[in-house]
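Handout, section B. The chain below has 542 residues.
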Amino acid sequence: MPRRGLPLQARTRWLLVVLALLLSLLLLMYLLECAPQTDGNAALPGLAGDGYGKEYYQALLQEQEEHHQTRAASLKRQIAQLKQELQEMSEKVKTLQDRKGPGLSPASHVGNKEQTSNDLLEFLHSQIDKAEVATGAKLPSEYSVVPFESFTSMKVFQLEMGLTRHPEEKPVRKDRRDEFAEVIEAGLEVINNPDEEDEVRDKDGNIGMHEMYSESDFVEGYYRTERDKGTQYELFFKKENHDRFQHVTLFRPFGPLMKVKREAIDTSEQIINIIVPLSQRTEAFSQFIQNFRDVCIQQDRRIHLTVVYFGQSGLSEVRTILEAVASETHFHNYTLLSLDEEFSRGRGLDMGARNWDMGEVLMFFCDVDIYFTLEFLNSCRLNTEPGRKVFYPVVFSLYNPAIVYANQDVPPSIEQQLIHKKDSGFWRDFGFGMTCQYRSDFLAIGGFDLDVKGWGGEDVHLYRKYLHSDLMVIRTPVPSLFHLWHEKQCADELTPEQYRMCIQSKAMNEASHSYLGMLVFREEIEAHLRKQAFRTTGEPGE
């Protein structure tokens, strides 16, 4: 009699077989899905004895993981920096909003903060859109072009040469060095950790091997600043023995204007002690006194004049000039100090500053060849503050009128020569002798280096002292301050450095580049004019 358990056992065996087949099928599908992609006829690494195995895949995975970790860390840093900047800007804007509309609810503060962040981001992006970065802009003339300046990791090539007069130089200022280092680092960050849309792909659209770049691969860069939008940077990188360049464009947008402070400045009681060191040159002093009389005595009336005279020759004439002015105008706010020793500008200014015994006072260190207006005296008061600010104006230095106005029988008057044109003068940005500062700051900084004798050097030493201090140095061209031309003599007693500075100053004071060129080629020009006259009249020119 057959057993009933046999069909059940058979059914069970078949069920187990089917389950085993299903598991085998699932395992096969999993292996096919997870296997690395290969080209059609290429052998599978690790299976055909081509040297690849488990270690290869582990190294590959490790490399990819490190790459993604580096990129993630970089993105986190950028996000954190952006958040911090947005937070700072938001707090400033919030402070301004609080001042305008107090009484807002906490909920509205949160909403305003988010809205402010969004508005700021939108504003920064709009700055990029408005700047001439992605597309060109229609300009009315060649004078509207904002040119680039170029730089490498070591040099800057500049159109506006500034104080150094060097068309090529190492970036001297720390902020410039830090700026370029930051820009190059940001460019490397873009290349080494590209966004998905920046990945380098081959002609088939596949992502190629990623190559890391370093600072040594930086070739050159260009930058320019549109004052109302921001600074644009064009950076180029290249691997050695490669023909492919990496080009990165960066833009640092300017933010919206922010109010820092507002203050009212009362200058009605601010007396200026104008200190003039002098030796001989009585004719120049007479001209200076005429300007002083017109501006300081008749208009400003808040001035004290201190003249420090060196030597005996001409002293009585200077005293006579001062007494005549006092008699005619009833002006007695002046002091004449006499030193029977060799002229030293630093010594004279130092003595004039220390001789004042009526407490704090604003001082203007001046030369006898300086011409100023009432507007300058206001600038002197507005740009100085005891313990905080000193003023170093850039003087407009006039050229030799005998050269500038050579086509006129007589040069125009001094007042008519006071124009700002490239052939009439230049901004004396290498000069630091004219300065406004409070007496307390001058004494606290240590005054002049009295070891400097003769011409030049003492003003630079004092200027550098202020640069090394915590005081703010206001340095700007001032259109109401002129240096009148006078013939300069460079004495043999000067040190080699002083003599070199004196000769350079003498050369720059004579005339503009074009006028000096006319003098150099005078004979050639006269010969040309004679030939032209002969062709016209048939007779040799005179």
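Note. The two ends are 154 Å apart (CA to CA). Compare this with the example in section A.
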